[in-house]
Amino acid sequence: MLPLVIYVFIDVIAFSSVIIAVLPFHVMFLGAGPLVVTLYMSTFSFVQFFASPYIGRLSDKFGRKPMLITSCIADLISHSIMAIASSLNLVLLSRVIAGLFSCNISVGSAYISDITSLKDRTKYIGYYNAAFSLGFVIGPIVGGLLAGSDPSNPNYLRANLFAASMNFINLFILFFFLKSSKSLISSQKKTKKFLSEIFSIITNKNVSYLFYLYFLVNFVFSGLNGIFALWSKEIFNWGPQQIGFLMCFVGILLAIHQSLSINIFVNKYKEKKTVFIGIISIFIGVLFLSFAKDYIILSFAIFFLTLGIGIFNPTINSLISKNIEKSNTGAALSINQSAMSISRFSGQPFAGLFFQSFGYNAPLFVGIAILGIIKIVFGSELLSKD
User: Is residue 186 part of a domain?
Assistant: First the structure.
């Protein structure tokens, strides 16, 4: 378990040092506007949507470790290309390569499900996600400092070289310290048609509503992520460095919520009600953000947003793993990862379009409306007994 936690911690440092603090400004530096910026940010998720179920299925067949190593190599290549990217085409290529093999959340969660009991699964997935969040404490600050404070002239070379060096360290950890997990697919399972199996998982009434819920909430949250650098530049005139320091604050809060808050809520209210509380918290956070003009209101918004997403995402993954056959865990969690990918490659350009067409707060108002509808539609199911 420890090598996996260290791996995801380092992986997110590499990812967040570039994608959160540098990529939007890198793409703007190359001449893109708000809509194109969000389209480039969502390219990774667009590719991941098609690739993730296959990666999850391969992890069920061959084990989690080979897929995590493949993902790490792809990240190393991607960041190396982006370090020298002086055109939008090269940036696009780097994001496609990373998206094709990305699986740290889905396959990592499946690895945890292999080695933990049902009783402890939510707790350990929460710890894993806390390590994920802690990476955001360090990565954005380092990336922001390396890229500089000038939003019109970011030093993307240094930030991406740092990210590539982190990927190289992770390869060493995965090769020599992470134990391989056993193949979970029986010979009968191997003969099944892949698409038929995916369809049976998607239509399983015990988990299908969780896929839809995961998509809708992350559609709103991903749209917010996609325009946040642009929004903060509009409101506070921030550059990469300031974004990096804010993301440090976000990472600390997420780590607290995913390691401590989630256990408090799950122990008291169980998984379904915890998911509902997460949705309410995100709703409050977006509402605060829509009228944030100073750092105090911004801090309240960030607190509720991180609490909401910090308890929502890992609890959904835990519910899916508990309500699906063990031999299909990797595939099911990868389908959920695909739902996340759809939310990103649709939510981010959607938010970018509204930002560009109707103003910087328009995506927030739309998000508030969507979250309100989600509470009404899914409320009765989530407030029922687990």
Answer: no
Does residue 187 fall inside a structural domain? Answer: no
Tokens 């940036």 appear where? 91
Q: Give the Cα-Cα-Cα angle 128, 370, 39 (nearest 5 degrees).
A: 70
Q: Give the domain extent around 302.
A: 2-178+197-382
Both tokens of 309, joined, read 């997403």
pLDDT of amino acid 188: 43
Instruction: Give the angle subtended at the CA of 82 by the CAs of 148 and 136, to the nearest 5°.
Output: 55
**Alpha helix (H) residue ranges in the chain:** 2-18, 23-29, 34-62, 64-83, 88-101, 104-115, 118-147, 156-177, 187-190, 194-202, 208-236, 240-256, 262-290, 295-322, 329-358, 362-382
Residue 126 lies in a domain: yes
DSSP state of 327: G
* Pure H helices in 203-294: 208-236, 240-256, 262-290
C-alpha–C-alpha distance, residues 324 and 201, integer Å:
8
Helix (H, G, I), strand (E, B) or coil at 63: coil
DSSP assignment, residue 129? H
Look at the chain and report how many structural domains it folds into.
Answer: 1
CB atoms within 10 A of CB 273: 18
**Backbone φ and ψ of 85, nearest 5°:** -70, 110
Report which of 60, 126, 68 is spatially closest to residue 278, judged by C-alpha positions. 126
As averages over each run of 10 residues, the pLDDT of the chain (386 residues) reads 86 87 85 84 82 79 87 94 92 92 80 76 74 81 84 84 95 89 49 65 81 92 88 87 83 83 89 93 96 92 94 88 74 76 86 91 95 91 79
Residue 64 sits in a domain of what CATH number? 1.20.1250.20
Structure tokens belonging to residue 164: 């590539």
Going by C-beta distance under 8 Å and a sequence separation of 6 or more, which residues neighbour residue 113? 121, 125, 321, 326, 329, 333
